[in-house]
Structure formats: C-alpha cells, structure tokens
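Reading group handout, session on sequence-to-structure problems. Before we discuss, look at one worked example. The prompt was deliberately terse, the way you'd type it at a terminal:

> structure SulP family inorganic anion transporter

The input record follows.
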Amino acid sequence: MHRHLPKVTFADLFTPKLVTVLRESYGRGHLRSDLVAGLTVAIVALPLSIAIAIASGVSPERGLYAAIFGGFFVSALGGSRFQIGGPAGAFIVLVAATATRHGIDGLLTATFMAGLMLMAGGLLRLGSYIKFIPYPVTVGFTGGIAVTIMASQIKDFLGLTLAEPEPGALAEKLPVLAAALPTLSPAAFLIALIALLTIVGLKKLRPHWPGMLIAVIVATLIALALPWPVETINSRFGGLPTGIPMPMLPDLSPARVMTMLPDATAFALLGAIESLLSAVVADGMTGRRHRSNCELVAQGAANIASSVMGGLVVTGTIARTATNVRAGAHGPIAGMLHSLFVLGFMLIAAPLAGYIPLAALSGVLVFVAWNMAERHAIFTLIRGQKGEALVLLVTFGLTIFRDLTEAIVVGFALGALLFIHRMSESVAIETEMALVPEDLPDNPDGTRTPYDEHEAADPDIVIYHITGAFFFGAAATVGAVLDRISDGYKVLVLDFKSVPLLDSTGANTIAGLAAKLERTGTRLIIAGAAPALRHALLVHGVRPPAVKYTPSVDTGVAIARRWLAGKPDARA
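And the output record:
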C-alpha cells in the first residue's frame, strides 16, 4: 500500500515564522531573550549601517533607514526565525555605481523595483532554485566584493585628498589613489588603525563584546582629543537627522523604470542570494529550517518599505544574523526589536554620532571586507579541481574589473558547462553477448563445464548496458556507440535499468536508432526502463511494434530467442 505525502499548501510555504513562533505559546522568558538579542544586534548594526551608507556614496542616515524599516519587515514577514535584515557590505559596489549614474532618486527606484522582483520570485517559488548557484561562484563574487570594498576604503583610511573625483572602477581608482599618497593624513591613518586593531583585539580577547561600537567610540574620543583636523560625519554630511522622514513613492514612470531595470535586477539577484545564504547559515547554527520563498517575499516587502522611507537596499546579513543567534534570540521578535533599538539610538544619539571620524568607519569596513573574503575556501578551490578553480577565478576577476551581475551570470554558465561535462563523462555503455544455455551443461558430478565465452555467445543477440543520465551532454557519445552496431545481429537488447534520467535529446537518439534498426530488419528490445523513461520514449515515437519493452534483460533475451525460433508472439 502506497502512502502519499501530504500536499504542500500555500500556508505551509508563506506563513511567516513570526506567526509560527507566536503559536508556540510565546512567553515572558522568550521576550526577555529576544530583548537581549535585539539590543546586542542593534549595537553591532548601528556603526555598520552608517559605514555602509557612507562607503556607498550616500548620506549615513540612509543606511539607518534601511536597518530600521527594512530590517523590521525582514523579521516580521520572513521565513527564517533568526534572520536580521539591513544594509549589507556586499551591496556597496552596486549601490555606489547606481547612485553615481542615476542619483539618489534612481537608487530608490531601483530598490523599489528590486523589492517587487523579490516578492514575485517568492510567490513564483523561485527561492528553491537559488541553491543551484555553484559554490565557486558564490566564493568568487564574495571575494571580489571584499577586494572592491577594501579598495574603496583606502581614501578615508589614509585620509587622502584627491585632486579629482574618485573613480569607481578598480583599474582607474588605484592610479588616482597612488597619485594622492603624498596627501596622507597621519591623524586619519592613526584613527583608522586604532579602530581596526581595537576590533581585532576585542574579537580575540572578548569575542562577545560589541567590538565595532567600542572601536568607533574609542576612535571618536581620540579624534576629539587630537589637535589635528579629521574629517567627520558632521564635516562631510552635516550630521544625522533627529527624526524619521515621511514616506514617499520613488519615481516609477515608464521611462525611469526602463532605465533602472538593469540595476534593479542586479539588486534583486544579489539580494536573493545573500538573504538565502544567510538563512542557511542560521539553519546550520540552530537546526531549524527556513522557508525560502516566504523569505524572498519578506525581502521584497522590506526593500519596498526601505525605498519608500529613503533607505538603501536591504538583504539578510550573515554577520548580524549569526550575532542574533549567539545572543540567544528565540524568534523574529528579536529582529524587530533590533530595528526599534536602532531607531531609538538614531533619535537620541544623532548629535553625538556626527563626531564620528570617517577614518574610524573605514577601519570598521576594512575589517568587514577582510572577514567577507572566504580565504580558506578560495585556497581550497584553487588547490582542487581545475574546472572549479577556473569558475572561481573568472567570477572573482569579473566582479573586480567588470560587473557583479555579469560575474554571476558568466560564473553560473561556466559552472553549468563544467557540470554537464562531468555528467557526460559519467555515462557508460557496455556490450554483453547473450549466452546460449545449451553450451553450459551440468556434469554428472554437479559441476559446470568450463566454457569459452566466445564459443558460448549467441551470434544473433547483443546486449548493451547503459549506465548514468542519458541526456543531451551524453547523447552524442552513446549514439556513436550504438551506430557501430553490426548488421549481423538480429536482436538488440538495450538495458535501461541503470538510467535514472532520459531527456528529449536522449529519447530522440533512441528513436533514430529504432528507425534505423527497423529498416535493416533488426529487432529492438528495451529492458528495465522506469515508467518515466518509457513515457519519454513513447512520446518520441519509440513504440511497438518497432520496439518491445520488457521488465528485465533476462526476459528480453528469452523473448528474443522465441523470436529467433519463429514463435508466434514475435512482436506481441
């Protein structure tokens, strides 16, 4: 008796984890845990959100708006219990390029459109397919982004004064920065170095302390004590706002939408990858399972909310999500509280945040970029198989010197070709001759008579065993072997028992073989084909009487012998 699995409903796929947690008798102890975790994450998110916004070429409050409004909706509507949303370092390159080309209005439009794309992707259940992006591609573009972020921080880390606007492309940026090295500010460099070393030291000595916030506070106090002038948030941006903006829809005119479509697509693609990778990390730390399509819908809603409130692109953030788990969060309420705490910090401490040196924030981002580059994974892949190393290096190089979207697309295509090549090599086809039973008589003492395989072979029947996925990548190889079948055989038995997959190209190859054999008078038996494979063959015209389907090779050989003996069921 077969038991059918229960059908997955819309509610199973798209019910937010917040609803699931509240159904589990959410109590005071759970709230206490979420309060502590939310506060801990907010302390980490505050300086990071400001630093990411500044590195992206926009005013610092836009990073805070993303953490407040986008982060709230990621947790409230998401499919992960522990996901923390907000601005991410991975987006710095994309956001900076978009803001440079199209201004803040274009950036908000692209963010809004990316939100719609993410919601549509979730509702169309595309979240399950993000896992098919090859590992070397994710390692490659993550490493490329890390290098680009580090390069973008050289100016503020060293306190350089540039004679011309800083180019976005790395190849153009480095000569401009090198020419400005004589303008290095010892004070800015010292502050950036102190911030960086403080974070590194606290990570080793006190890993549970909020190292980034402490580093920014220490660097700010030193900057205030130094007699040298150092560029701060106040001096570049005029400080942080002490309130929240009124919601406003971005420009969604047809002309603007068409202009921003490539940027929005890049935002949506990277946002989907980053958020689902972060959710997978949280699953690994907690043993839970996230709802990928629900998570995409939440990420879409979060980006729409962030853009309406003037914020940056939002995605799930691995570092803040891991901090949330380690801080003892029970569920999504911790992420919602994190957003409220960031809002409170902004409203209360905005005047003080204006004194933060940009060099200190640069030190924070250098640390983030260093951690973002998966150095161990990069070296492992380079020392591994050549094909995967090539995918990694191509993705890495294109991310740095060309474009992130192009890097992901090309890397994915190379990874897919590598997979197809390996799958095609895994397909094997072996020949076996049917033995004549009369050539193997029993001796009177019960033993078998030694036999010569060639003498015992039936000259009229040949058996071909196919092993592996019979798809377009292997069809040419298998077809070439089958085409060499001698006309001297009267029956061909194809063993499909070890074929797990047959695509239209493979089925068409067998259809061509069946037509050829029918013209030459050779009969065809297909043995052991699973129902799905048999259906594919029938659809492509491989049907009786041109072919006989049997459950096994032995049955097929027995039928072949009856055919050769002239029995009446020849094509039954």
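Points for discussion. First: DSSP finds 24 helices and seven strands in the chain. Second: The chain has two domains: 17-374, 427-436+454-564.
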